[in-house]
Design goal:
Elements lengths: L13 H10 L4 H9 L3 H18 L1 H18 L2 H14 L10 H11 L7 H10 L5 H13 L8 H20 L3 H14 L6 H17 L6 H14 L3 H14 L6
Helix pairs in contact: 3-4, 4-5, 7-9, 8-9, 9-10, 9-11, 11-12, 12-13
Length: 259
Amino acid sequence: MLSKFERGEADLSSMKLITALDNIHSDLNEFMYLVRGFSQKQVLAFQENLWELYDREGIDSLQSLYEETTKKYRSSAKTSYLLQMIRIKSLLVFFDSEIRATDEELTFLYDYFFTIDIWGNYELELFSTISTLFPLPLYFKYSREMLQKTDLLGSLPSNKVGIDTILINGLFKAIEEKDKLKADYFTFQIENRDLPESEAYLKIIYMIAKGYYDTIFNVENKGLEKIQRGITILQDLEYVGGARYYENYFANQLSNKDL
């Protein structure tokens, strides 16, 4: 016999769903991965393996893997291979800024993101990972779509961190392009979301981003001071990798400034 829910006589609210998942020792994010036909562990493991492959064998190994995966996709037409190609390429961009997503890859991503009614942890992780492939106008468009489609699950802690990270990255991207209108949009959205104390690392990065904004758009003469203070805090808190990243980042972006 069908349940009331299956007969359309009762609804399944988000709170009821969370309670039901808790009873079977699962969580909403894992549930959303399964609904999409993915395994959360497999997705994260694949991404980690890409970095490990690069650490062991260098950039050529990633390029070879991309070519091998492309052949598998051409022979099978399985979209899982196309998605792997996109993930690999998103790392290759770090080493070659001339790399671009193909029209086929962009069309696939557009069809996927804009047909999903609710963005969960998988969509946030995917967008955040592959966003290096997006020029600012496309990143901006996807970010607006994200905010519209995360209302239901956006308050979950892991999802909130993902959303905030995407918005801060968008702010950096807009400042790099000297697009003040889009930078102001990302700033408004971040301020409106009110980064909590539990996201201390993101609050520091946001302070650095605001210093970058002030410097590029000549808002005040303390922008460089904010950037340096943020990097110093990262060093003091032993976020060594993060501090080094932003030191190198601004050495390239602000080569004519004194940091």
